[in-house]
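Slide 14.
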Amino acid sequence: MKETKNSALITAQAFYYQLIVALEKCFDMEEGNIIYIEKDGDVSLFSDDLNTGVQIEVKDVQARLTNHSETFWKTLKNWLAPEFNHLQYKYLILHTTQSFGKTTQLATWNDKKPQEKLQILKDIHSKSTSESEISKMQKEILSMATEVLLEIIEKIIISIESDNKDEILNKIKKKHLMGIPDNNKQAFVNNLIGFISELGNKDSWCIHYNVFKENFVDLTSQYSRKEFTFPEFRGMDATVQEIAENEDKQFVRKIKDIEYEDVISEAIGNWLEFSSSLIQDLDNSPTYREETQKYQDELIEQYKGKYRTAKRNKKDPKDMYDEIIYSEPMLMGNIRPHLAYRNGVIHDAMDTNPELTWDTRK
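Slide 15: predicted structure.
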C-alpha cells in the first residue's frame, strides 16, 4: 500500500511539473500557435508554419543523466515508435532537471552531427555488459533502420538542469506578472494552471494562443488591483478634549436630539478612528476608500429599512440606536470589520447626510 501511495504521489508530482512547463511554454506562443498536452508526449507546440513544431518530454528527476539513464533511452524509444509522427516537429527536446554525470558521453550530444550522435549511441551500448532492461532497449533501438535513426536523432536536443517547478513559477511571476501586486501573484498563477487543467477532455488537450491570451487578460484585470488589507481598529472612547472639539458635529447633534449623551464619547471615538484611517497614507488607500464607500451605501440602505420599521412600531430612538450600533457588523466581502470601523462609517453617514436621523418620533 505504501508503494502504491508513493507511486501515485510521484505520478501526481510529475503531472504537475508537466503543467508548469506547459504554462511556461504558453508565454512563448505567437499568433496561430497551439500547445498540445499528452498528444505525442508531454508538451507539443505547433504553429501555422509546417515543420516548425516542437515536442517536449518533461522529466523532473534528481539522479544524474548518465550513459544508461532511463530518462534518455525511454524517451528516445518513444520518439522512434512507428505511431509517432516526427515529420511535424522540427525539434524533439528532452527537458530534464538532471545534470550530466561526470563521464557520460551524452554531455556533448547537442554539439554533434547526426552521424556523430549515432556513434555515441553505439559506443554506449558496446560498453554495456549487463542484461538489464536498458541494455535490451539500447539493442532494440540500434537494430532499427539507420535512416530512421538519423532522422530522429538529428532533431533531438537534451536540455539539462532545467528549472524545477518553483524556479519556473518564480520566473513567470518576475517576467510576466510585473504589473500584479505580490500578494496576488500566486493566486494569478494558480488560476492559470487551473485554466490549463480544465482545457483537457477525452478527445484532446490543447491551448490555443488566442484562448490563453484572453484568459491572461481577464486575470490581469482581476488581479492587477491590490488585495484589500484592512487597517487596524481599537475602538477607543474619545477624550474630554476630543468631545469638546467635536460636539457640534452633525452626527453628535443627532445623538443629542434623542437625549442619549451616554454614547457620545464612544461615538466620537469611533468616528475619529474611522476618519483617521481614511486620511492615513496607506499603500492600499484607493482600494480602502472605494470599498468603504460601497460598505457605507449598503449600511445606509440597511438603516433605512430598520428606521421605517422602528418608526412604524413607535420604537424608542435609543433602542433603535442600540440595535443598529451594537449588532454584529455586516460582512465586507469576506471580512467582518471591527465594530468601531462599522460604527464610524455609520456616524460618518449621519454627519454627511442631513436626511438621516436616529429620532423615530419625527
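Speaker note: The chain has two domains: 14-223, 240-352.
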